[in-house]
Design brief:
Blueprint: H1 3-16, E1 23-24, H2 30-40, E2 47-50, H3 57-62, E3 66-70, E4 75-77, H4 84-91, E5 92-93, E6 98-99, H5 106-114, H6 116-122, H7 126-139, H8 146-149, E7 153-154, H9 161-170, H10 174-177, H11 179-193
Parallel strand pairs: 2-3
Antiparallel strand pairs: 1-7, 3-4, 5-6
Helix pairs in contact: 4-5, 4-7, 5-6
């Protein structure tokens, strides 16, 4: 089965038969969608964002009611002392194909981000200022207006593990549908959401 068809079936399973809600926005990327969900939520509701995407550090700096967990490194991420978006706009982000300002590495970017006067002097160069502003706009999360908020949708799934297991078997996911593996898979969800 081709990957894109498997992906579509997995998204359908998640949004229909798993005990999770799938939230989507037709014109926003997942990180912007998560950001806007956090932005509009009550500060009394704690959030844990699970992602290895370092762009979420900006949300960590903006909102006191969130934590950021990196599942690859298996650690909670701490907020740096410097303004993260400014720092990243100066040095760039190779993972998103955003080139930094030539000659600016991590240490120089941190020094500039922590000193507004030095940053202003540095950005008095028109070329550097243009690169910085472009990068800043690309890296910053996009805030939705009221009309954009209304375009978001979320699923109201039911939990049906029999359908999930049958679909996984049909898709050839045999290692997860073996009895021992399948029980561990179920236990993961049941321990989080109860039976």
């Amino acid at each position: 089965m081709k990957f894109f068809r498997q992906k579509d079936r997995i998204v359908e399973l998640l949004s229909t038969y798993f005990p999770v809600s799938l939230v989507r926005h037709p014109t926003s990327e997942a990180d912007d969608t998560i950001y806007n969900l956090i932005r509009t939520s009550s500060t009394a509701v704690p959030w844990i964002v699970v992602s290895s995407d370092t762009d979420f550090i900006q949300a960590l700096q903006e909102f006191p009611h969130i934590s950021l967990y990196n599942p690859v490194k298996k650690i909670f991420v701490n907020s740096p002392d410097h303004p993260y978006v400014t720092w990243k706009a100066l040095r760039g982000d190779s993972s998103d194909n955003i080139p930094g300002i030539p000659g600016v590495g991590d240490k120089t970017a941190e020094k500039l981000a922590c000193d507004p006067e030095l940053l202003s002097e540095f950005l008095s160069d028109k070329t550097k200022a243009e690169i910085f502003q472009r990068n800043y706009n690309l890296i910053s999360f996009r805030e939705w207006n009221d009309e954009e908020k209304m375009k978001m949708s979320s699923s109201s799934p039911i939990r049906d593990w029999d359908i999930v297991k049958t679909t996984f078997t049909d898709m050839g996911f045999h290692s997860i549908t073996k009895e021992g593996s399948w029980q561990k898979f179920l236990n993961t969800f049941e321990s989080l959401w109860g039976s």
